[in-house]
Amino acid sequence: MSTPVGRSAGESWRALRMPLLITGAVVLIAIVVMIATAARTSGPFSPDSSDSDGARALAALLKNHNVNVHSTEVLDDAVQPGDGKALIIGPAGSLTRSDWQRIAAARWSHVILVRPGAVALEVLAPGVQDAGQTLAWRSREAGCDLPAAAKAGTVSVAGSTYSAPDAAQRCYGDGITNTVIRLSQDDQIVDVVGTPRSFTNAELAEDGNAALALNLIGTDQELTWYLPQWESSGSATGGSDGPDLVPPEVRYVGWALAFAVLVVALWRGRRLGPVIAERLPVIVHAAETTEGRARLYRRSRARDRAAAALRESALGKLHGIPQRADPSAVVAIVAARTGRDPAMLYELLYGLPPVDDAALMYLSHELDVLTQEVRHP
Fold first, then answer.
1. DSSP letter at 127?
2. pLDDT computed for residue 246 by the predictor
3. C-alpha angle with apex 356: 350 to 360, nearest 5 degrees?
4. Which single residue of 62, 125, 353, 364 could bond 304 by disulfide (Cβ 3.0 to 4.6 Å)?
């Protein structure tokens, strides 16, 4: 008759109930926190980011001047009718041509493109092209009659430069290409800004950067701050700006799953506690082990191995003599202590293996006598 040793279903549930409840609660809290923070944008040039490359200081400046800033990462917010409103599009993310065309169709009164790609320029700022050059970071004069730039005066700029048609207003450049472009077409104003660094938390207080940002971006009471994250219309409609990114919703689910896996790994992971003493099922005395080893040597007639073991043991018992020392040095030390002939000592400690059991017994006896003489002169 056999007795089951595994856990029953009830015992397994009682053992796993508390860990599962704790894991579920932690995952639920993580999901709630991620959903609660999903409405806030993040990353470079984000109006909610207080990092050095964020733009929280600029968003606060605009709000202090009665500009209602609405930050978003959702494309639908950027394709709503924008008459009488301003839209600023950050440098991150990836949008397809059809996405840019939808934004253009919304007819925002004022569009600010921050370091845009070729598709965005072609759709929203025709005639403006990326010059493929960058300006080094330093203070520059406006060099144009754009009111926002004239009021700001000297501004610290660095970044992409653009060529523009003659009808455009071109500011902050090297005389050929410029990093701030304004196009006025029909009832819409489009600004192209290739120097997002000037408006970040770290650099906004430099020179006239804050004045330029306020006069360039804060001209409308309603401002939608859009940070593209993912192309929503598919990439088969004629190209996109930037690499393909994962949708924000998938990111939150992925982080939640990764956190859940981490919690389970910590719970089920092996924990190394203090070393504990364990009683052996059978106690084997040292003498029995030695006798068993000797019987094995005798059965296999391994007199050479037995002799080597005896000599190694004898050398270990010679106090004050290194066991791995040179044989000639060991023989000289032992001869000085015992007065024996060095040649006989060398034969005893390092000689040939015995030819029979009697010679092996004689070797064992002589080694025992030698160790006694050395230890008790």
1. T
2. 54
3. 45
4. 353
